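1st attempt posting a full record on here, be nice pls
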Amino acid sequence: MIPFFSCEDNTQALKDLTADLQDPLGTAYNIRMVYTDSAAVKAILTAPKHVDYTNLSFQYSEFPEGLKVLFFDDQGNENQVIADYGILYNDSKLIDLKGHVQLLSHEGAKLTTQQLYWDSKSEWLFTEQPFTFEDKEYNFNAVRLDSNRDFTKFQTGNLIGTVAVSEPIDSLETP
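the predicted structure (as tokens):
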């Protein structure tokens, strides 16, 4: 008895199977997500469209039509972030915001740029893009920002604009 084997091209069937694996887990419209910690509201995210890719090995969520996030500090003060596009990488908790990104603080500070990254684990902001920052004491443009969420510790590239600087009084001089 002689065994017979046949080969069949299953390339298209394999492509069809793996194509389904790239589809999102779900898509939601006009969403409102409330983030809490110990019964206190920490943030409220709203977006016209949310696409969930947490079914993939590299999990992420996408906000292709923009988003608005209200953040609340420990005193209940409201700060907000607005962007034309956002993507949240689940494992690293890194958020990439793009297109007319605005960060507005409850104290009136405003940061504007075309791209801003937010590391939610360490509460750190950074970008390599040009940005504008203004508040009661500062009004400047620069390229590159590396800052904590309160802007009390930050580094930038070359600054253009007005920055208030205080100098210590020389103790040898009389006023």
